[in-house]
Each structure stands twice: as structure tokens, then as C-alpha cells.
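Lecture 7 notes: from sequence to structure.

We start with a single chain of 412 residues. Read the sequence below before looking at the structure.
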Amino acid sequence: MNRRNFLATAAATTAAVTLAPSRVLGANNRVRIGIIGSGSRGQDDIHTAIKLPDVEFVAIADVYARHRDEAKAIAPNAEAYDDPRRLLDRHDIDGVIVATPLHLHSKYFHEVINSGKDLYCEKTMTWDIQEAIACRKAAETTKQVIQIGLQHESEGNHADAKQWVEQGLPGKITQVEAWMSRNTPHGKGQWVRPIPADCDPQHVNWDLFLNDRPKDKFDGNRFINWRLFWEFSGGNVTENMVHQIAWITTVLNLKEPAAATMSGGVFSEQDGRQVPDTIAVTLEYPENNLTVLWQSTFSNSHYGLGEHFLGSDGTIEHLSGSTDMVTGRSVSGLKFYPEKVNSPGGAILTGDSKDVDHMQNWIDCIKSRNKQTNAPVETGYLSAVAGHMANLAYREKRRITWEEAKEAKQPY
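Now the structure, written as C-alpha cells:
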């Protein structure tokens, strides 16, 4: 081999090493994944994952024996563990889904990426702002591929709305109205689930569930209905508002809110919950000359979920399950309506881009080693910050600024 050929071969080899994935995928380029937290949301994620091509579901970890058994019924070839550390110790797993209760998201966010595995972390990314800051910092230096479970970021409607804003169609947007409404039968509060007979200390690793929370005696209601309690949850803000705030934030390219206020209370059902079921949030973005409003109730489902982007030249309307007042039919989709005063010749537009499977996007990025997933950590961080600022404002009964919030310790 002459010198020229040697240098060419060496350069090609170096390039191949540089571009190669940090992990070697399984046989036939299959991605081997596991899950930490296999309750109802985790089981939905398992159903989604096993339908994807080139995915092999190999491991399940949950502190509750019933959840492990239910997950095994979906993915019978997966190994089940009562402690997530045993799953993370395995060297034959490429990616891990974290679908635990909210207060454990940050713990396993760090443990998964520190184990050298790629991460799909369910929303909300963290339980409080300090955790969001720490996860964002960790993501800056990791080589792992991270997707946050903000599935609306992979919608075709989201891509169309973002394109319309970039094209300037709505003009100057000064306000976004957003809402999410649900209803339940009288006497049955949202999220309240029956406590199985086997939900006891013999079948639940209560200390592992509590993690760093006060080591109180076992409480099946707090374990099963964790979404009702501040110690483990952020309530409706972190269960639902976070999806819409992420959507709005990425469509408009926003940063942290300058301030937040939130009012409401437990008005629908007096069932012992701590988190409010009726909510009105205001987020301030003065650098963008913008106010974002979000409201929610668990006592009426007529208007479903949606957003109105109110611009000087037009309105972007995104609806999901809203009931039309005239026809009574459910309405969903994306529309643009021009403002006659500033766009007299404008046309009504309908969003028509196709959705992308959010889990498939993560798998594709694992294969290509592309860290820019549809819902990267930055989106998880910004949406978490907005939600936690709103909850802090509610609990302190005052307007709270970003400067205050980023130093605040969120109470249980």
C-alpha cells in the first residue's frame, strides 16, 4: 500500500469510527428496550413499542407485582424485575422508557443515561424546577438519545402551525388561549382508581416508591392514586397543561415565562385530593409581547382540548374533541382564519400534514444517533418550568416570577 492509499484508508476508518453509534444494536439492527414503571401509562407505552418494526421488548421493572404481571401479559418474553437497578445493570439493552409516577422521573432520567442507555421519559420531565434544571444540564453532556413523552410534538398539526407562524400568516400574536375540559359521573373524581386487594406491603416495595419522600407507613390510596397528591404529582398542570404549553412553546419558539399566576381549587369532587380540578393559568412572555392563558375543568367536557393563537393578521385554531354548538358534532383539526381588517384577501387554510409516531421517532434517532428528537430535553425543560411556575403561584397564592421560581423549593 503506497502512502496516498494508506492515508485515504486511515481517513475513511477514522470517519467510520466517528459516525458509528455509541452502542452496538442487537441482531438484524433491532433495538432492545425495557421499561421502568409499568402502570397504566407504562402499559400503553409497551403496546405502542411492540408494534414497531425492529423493536424487541426485553425488560420490565416495577415496584408493584400486579403491574409486572400485567406488563408481562403484554410482552411475555420480557424479563421482569422488582427493582429498576437490576434492569439498568444489563448491558444488552439499548433504550429505556421511564413511565413511573412523576416524582421518580428525574431519578431515573439520570440513572438511565448514566447507565449508557437511551431514554424515553414520560411527561412531565420532572417533579420540580430544580430537577428540570439538573436534567437539562445532564443532557448537554450525554451522548444518549432522549425523547420526552410529549406526543403532540409529533403531530402534523404541530408542524403546520409552526410553518404558518414562520411564514408570518397570523401576523403579530399577542395572546394564546388554551383549554382542556373533561367530565366524570357524579361522585367519581378524575383519576380516582380502586385499590386492588393485593396492593399491600407484601406486593409493593413501598420504600423504593417513596424514594426520598418521608418514610410514612404504607398507604394504598397514595400509591394507586398518586396523581391526587402534591408529594408525587403536579396535578392537572403536569398531566395535561404540559402537553399544550409544550405545543405553544415550540410553535412560537418561546423561552421560560417571565411570570405566572394560577387560580382555582378542588371544586368538582370533594374526594380528598390535594391538587385542584378547576384551574385558570396566566403565563407572561413580555419579551414576545405575549400572554398565554390556560383553563381547565373536570366538570364539563363540551369544549374538549384546544388552542387559539390570536394574531393581528389571522387566527390559528387547533381543536381536539370540541363539540360544535350548531351541529353537536365533535370537531378536531387545525385551521387558519385570516383577519379581514389586515388580510382582506387571505384564505382559510386547513392543516393536512401527517402525524409522526412519537415512539418510532425515538427508535429512528437511536439507530441514526440523532440527538434531535421531536421532543428533546429543551422542550421537556421549558414545558416543565412553565407548569411548575403555575403550581408554585397557586400554592403561594400570588404572582411568581421566573427569577423567584428558579430559586424556590417546591413543597410536598
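The chain has two domains: 3-153, 155-354+377-405. Keep this in mind for problem set 3.
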